[in-house]
């Protein structure tokens, strides 16, 4: 996973920066309308942080991540999970085992991009 992101990030770094600079708006392929029931995990990204340091969900229960860039162009990936959202988007999923997962920004968004990390705690 790390290796994959490293490759991806270095290969698209330039184009991502250009796209961000022009205010390009791209819909992620995995974007789906937000579900209205179940646990909602609202993650907002701004320059250069997430609105919470940790987000909690329950193991074995479905939840929906609602991701939004409120300032700038950001994205989220979650280490070890199939989550890849850019700008705005939602993803419904379920994690069966308790643990902690690192949420990171997957768009090269500016000088403090590397600081954009948070934690998903599955209890
Ligand atoms: Cu970023």
Count of distinct strands = 9
What's the CATH architecture?
Answer: Sandwich
Which ligands occur here? Answer: copper (II) ion
What is the CA-CA span between the terminal residues? 23 Å
Just give the CATH class.
Answer: Mainly Beta
The oligomeric state of the chains shown is single chain
CATH homology superfamily: Cupredoxins -  blue copper proteins
Q: Tell me the count of domains.
A: 1
As residue ranges, the low-confidence spans are 5-29
What is the radius of gyration computed over CA atoms, rounded to a whole number of angstroms?
14 Å
Sheet/helix structural class: alpha+beta
Overall mean confidence score, pLDDT: 82
Q: What coarse outline follows from CA principal-axis ratios? A: globular
* Main sheet attributes: strand count, strand direction, barrel closure: 5 strands, mixed
**Percent strand:** 35-45%
Q: Determine the fraction of residues in helical runs and give it as a percent range.
A: 10-25%
Domain EfeO-type cupredoxin-like: 29-117
Pfam family, one: Cupredoxin_1
Protein name: Quinol oxidase
Signal peptide: 1-21
In short:
This protein is α+β, with helices and mostly antiparallel strands and 123 residues long.
What does this protein structure show overall?
The protein is of the alpha+beta class and 123 residues long. The protein has one domain: Cupredoxins -  blue copper proteins (Immunoglobulin-like), CATH 2.60.40.420. It is 16% helix and 37% strand. The chain has one helix and nine strands; from the N terminus they run H-E-E-E-E-E-E-E-E-E. It has one helix at residues 2-21, and strands at 39-46, 49-50, 54-57, 63-69, 75-78, 84-86, 88-93, 99-104, 117-122. The strands form two sheets. The protein has a five-stranded mixed beta sheet with strand order 3-9-8-5-6, with no helix packed on it. Strands 2-1-4-7 form a four-stranded mixed beta sheet, with no helix packed on it. Strand 5 (75-78) and strand 6 (84-86) form a beta hairpin. The chain is globular. The structure holds copper (II) ion (CU). Copper (II) ion binds at residues 74, 105, 107-109, 113, 116.
């Amino acid at each position: 996973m790390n290796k994959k992101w490293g490759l991806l990030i270095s290969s698209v770094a330039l184009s991502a920066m250009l796209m961000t600079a022009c205010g390009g708006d791209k819909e992620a392929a995995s974007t789906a309308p937000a579900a209205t029931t179940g646990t909602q995990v609202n993650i907002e990204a701004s320059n250069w942080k997430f609105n919470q340091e940790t987000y909690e969900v329950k193991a074995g229960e479905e939840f929906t991540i609602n991701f939004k860039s409120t300032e700038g162009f950001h994205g989220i990936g979650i280490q070890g999970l199939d989550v890849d959202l850019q700008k705005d988007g939602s993803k419904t999923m379920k994690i069966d085992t308790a643990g902690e997962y690192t949420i990171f920004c997957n768009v090269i968004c500016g000088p403090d991009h590397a600081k954009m990390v948070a934690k998903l705690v599955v209890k």
